[in-house]
Design a protein that fits this description.
The chain is an alpha/beta fold.
């Protein structure tokens, strides 16, 4: 039996014991009152008086039990019954009296009332009284029965009967008591289990915070109260930045421990009356009831970000964390929970897109932008299925000779009955939705197949550059995709150049490094696109074994007008030469820039001066014509100008 069961059994407030005592006491009281009236009717006043005293004691027992003292009430009841039976035996027929048969009944009552100590005490008293009654009647002759017989034999038989009855009663009562104890234990476990399940149904099992259901309920209560009292409520949608990297690098167990620490800090950063709930994954909702103005919500958001900015130590590992927070206010942004949740979610995504580690209040313009983004993603899916995308190719030229060295494949979206859409208008949406993975694979395969087609047509061998998104690396199988495309297209790996942005190189997770190593093992070339606009970390250039730097066009267009830009370009070229890297200048539009780049030592260039990105058919015409940069200069000198977007190339 568990300690809890024993405690419940001995507790005067136990409802089963109280009910059992009251039922037995009422039955005894009715029996004693009835027999009192019967004996008084027959003139047996001594017996009637004794029974009346017993009834009074039984009534006292009921009064005591109603007062909540069941143990004392039970003791009074058992003692009064034993005393009543013994008295009736003394004044009547002794061991021959029918009152003797009440002894086993009293013992049964003691067992049913759960008082084991009373059971053995009463049994001892009964045996003692029977012995004393036998001595008084048959040895000392201080009293006399109406039926004198059997002295010692009657005493012996009576004691044997009592002992056997007591043993039988004890066995039955003990089994019943054990069964009741087991039942109470099971009920206790079931009750505890129900309470635990009820807790889990309303709380997050990992962090102990309110879960989505309880958080919603508490926030809706706050909204209802605010509506009645004309007060304001703020709903904060908190999303952790880059939490996935914690799981990827350190494992899910460490990620779980990290979330527990985050939950603790969120709770400490707000008031006790505020609602903190885990919405799911690395998302949390915080309800701020009874705020005076939007400034109060801003202060809480700032406190949360400051709290998250402090280093976390999880399993001897120091981790850093930032968060993006969207804030919606009641009643101006919505009157109900669902509306506020939707608006705060939108604001959170705007905060994340603005650079993360920030908070933003909801603005109706955000919703319109989001709806446009959702519609754009839907159209992108359809465009991919309907093959509405096409590739345009821009030449990469050797600045000194004008010889064609390569081409960069650039995606365009040709929508039915709409202008051609440039990638800057839809690539961000494709990356956010993950569609960039499928689109990127399509671009890679189309570009490789097109280059093989040109090579087979005798247009010469040159390099095809294709841009890769960081999302394609995070998926984890970009090297396998490149390998499959090379096999299907038949393109030699050395003819493929993959362009990465500087921001992609910052993601130096083990999986990313391994992907780059596998790409290099395939034999493809790696280039850093838009170099100079991002982190420009020289350690990346050595660590990732890139082959080329492409200087961003923002420096090139100002090359002749800004000494600072000229110095930056010159420095990049010199650094690239020292690391044995090829340099390509992007965005060349002015012939005077070409000579300056040649003097700096820049070997390659691309831009509108040499040709705009053109469809495959137009680009192929230029390849067939075999026009060189020298030919173009000669025509310019004679006043012959090419149409916009035309390029003079050599396929040697």
């Amino acid at each position: 039996m568990s300690e809890e069961t024993v405690r419940i059994d001995d507790d005067d407030s136990h409802p089963m014991r109280a009910r059992r005592l009251a039922q037995i006491a009422r039955l005894v009281l009715i029996a004693e009152a009835t027999t009192t009236v019967i004996y008084a009717w027959h003139g047996a006043w001594l017996i009637a008086t004794t029974l009346a005293i017993g009834a009074v004691l039984c009534g006292l027992c009921l009064a005591i039990s109603r007062g909540g003292r069941q143990s004392l009430g039970g003791a009074v009841l058992l003692a009064s019954l034993t005393l009543l039976a013994s008295t009736l035996m003394w004044i009547s027929d002794g061991l021959h009296d029918v009152a003797l048969v009440t002894y086993p009944v009293i013992l049964i009552m003691a067992g049913l009332l759960g008082a084991k100590r009373y059971f053995f005490l009463l049994l001892a008293c009964m045996l003692g009284f029977v012995s004393w009654l036998s001595l008084a009647t048959y040895v000392w002759h201080t009293r006399q029965d109406n039926l004198l017989a059997g002295g010692a034999a009657l005493w012996r038989d009576t004691n044997v009967i009592l002992l056997v009855s007591a043993a039988a009663v004890w066995i039955v009562i003990d089994d019943m008591q054990k069964a009741l104890d087991r039942l109470r234990e099971q009920i206790g476990k079931f009750t505890a289990s129900q309470a635990h399940l009820a807790y889990l149904a309303r709380h997050d099992a990992l962090t102990g915070l309110s879960n989505r259901a309880l958080g919603r309920d508490r926030i809706e209560q706050a909204l209802g109260q605010a509506a009645r009292q004309q007060k304001r409520v703020a709903l904060l949608f908190v999303d952790l930045d880059n939490f996935k990297s914690v799981n990827d690098m350190l494992g899910h167990q460490t990620g779980d421990d990290f979330l527990k620490e985050v939950a603790l800090r969120l709770t400490q950063a707000v008031r006790e009356a505020d609602v903190v709930s885990r919405h799911g994954g690395d998302e949390f909702l915080i309800g701020l009831p009874d705020i005076a103005s939007a400034d109060d919500a801003s202060e809480v958001a700032a406190a949360i970000l400051a709290s998250l900015a402090r280093p976390f130590v999880v399993k001897d590992t120091e981790l850093s964390c930032t968060g993006s927070i969207g804030i919606a206010l009641h009643p101006q942004d919505g009157a109900d929970y669902d509306t506020l949740l939707r608006q705060s979610d939108i604001a959170m995504y705007v905060a994340k897109e603005s650079g993360r580690n920030a908070w933003r209040f909801f603005d109706p313009a955000m919703q319109a932008s989001l709806q446009q983004g959702v519609l754009l993603v839907s159209r992108l899916r359809g465009a991919l299925a309907r093959r509405e995308f096409e590739l345009h190719y821009q030449p990469v030229i050797a600045l000194a000779s004008g010889r064609l060295l390569g081409a960069e494949a650039l995606i365009r979206w040709r929508r039915p009955e709409a202008p051609l859409m440039l990638p800057g208008l839809f690539i961000d949406a494709a990356e956010r939705s993950g569609l960039i993975v499928d689109i990127g694979e399509w671009v890679l395969e189309q570009a490789c197949c097109q280059l093989v087609e040109w090579q087979c047509a005798g247009c010469g061998e040159f390099t095809m550059a294709v841009n890769l998104s960081v999302v394609q690396f995070r998926r984890g199988n970009v090297d396998e995709v490149v390998r499959r495309v090379l096999e299907r297209s038949g393109l030699r790996a050395g003819c493929l150049e993959l362009e990465l942005t500087e921001s992609t190189l910052v993601d130096d997770a083990d999986a990313f490094i391994l992907s780059l190593q596998r790409l290099k093992a395939l034999g493809v070339k790696l280039a850093i696109d838009d170099f100079g606009t991002g982190y420009s970390n020289l350690a990346y250039l050595q660590r990732f074994a890139v082959d080329k730097l492409k200087i961003d066009r923002s420096f090139i267009v100002r090359l002749n007008n800004s000494s600072q830009d000229r110095a930056i370009v010159d420095a990049i070229v010199q650094i690239a030469h020292s690391l044995d890297l090829v340099v390509t200048a992007e965005g060349i539009e002015d012939p005077s820039v070409v000579q300056a780049l040649i003097e700096m030592g820049c070997a390659q260039g691309q831009g509108y001066l040499f040709g705009k990105p053109q469809p495959a058919a137009e680009f192929e015409k230029l390849l067939v014509l075999g026009q060189t940069l020298a030919q173009r200069r000669e025509r310019e000198e004679t006043g012959v100008f090419l149409a916009a977007g035309e390029g003079l190339l050599s396929s040697h």
